[in-house]
Specification:
The protein is an alpha/beta fold and 179 residues long. It contains seven helices and five strands. InterPro entries: DUF218.
């Protein structure tokens, strides 16, 4: 009995370790030029909004949603902060003020994508956040092509472990049908 329990624990540990290794190897990478209907930027890390604006300027997409923006922030303030043309923000950038976490980013993005009838999006977030963000968006945006554009960062081991566990919990919840 104890040997079986030990064997089971070893298998669980090996599975966890292999999963973590796969998680590390699958961190989001920068995308470069790739055309999609829209860009979705999840706030919360440096370089994300700039990456989305760069994609818009290259005409890799027609429109951009910045999800999870503080309700007090206005488009002209973001345009000034990123030295962007205010006209670009007027025509092509929407600010989402409802999201407070990754799940609500997905909900906010889902409504926006469906309202605009988009079929493909470029998801911009930090490299370490890509797996869970993509999981949440894929759950909400079934039938929409999601192309990841990871912003390189230098997360510590604690951050990576925490994000891996969040990913596992959310993946498990979705497999069990818990929304």
């Amino acid at each position: 009995m104890i040997r079986r329990l030990f064997f089971l624990l070893v298998l669980l540990a090996l599975g966890w370790g292999a999963g973590f290794a796969l998680f590390l190897f699958s961190l989001g990478k920068p995308l470069g030029a790739h055309r999609t209907d829209a860009v979705v930027v999840l706030t919360g890390g440096p370089g994300r909004i700039q990456r989305g604006l760069d994609a818009l300027r290259r005409e890799d997409a027609r429109r951009m949603l910045v999800s999870g923006v503080n309700p007090d922030v206005r488009p002209r303030e973001l345009a000034a902060q990123f030295s962007a043309d205010r006209a670009l923000f007027g025509c092509c950038v929407d600010l989402g003020h409802e999201a407070v976490d990754t799940r609500s980013n997905a909900d906010e993005t889902g409504r926006w994508v469906h309202d605009h009838d988009y079929h493909s999006i470029r998801l911009v977030t930090s490299d370490w956040h890509m797996a869970r963000a993509r999981l949440e968006l894929a759950h909400v945006l079934q039938g929409v092509t999601i192309v990841g554009d990871g912003v390189p960062s230098r997360p510590g081991w604690r951050m990576l472990l925490r994000e891996y566990h969040k990913y596992l919990v959310r993946r498990g919840a979705l497999l069990l049908g818990v929304d």
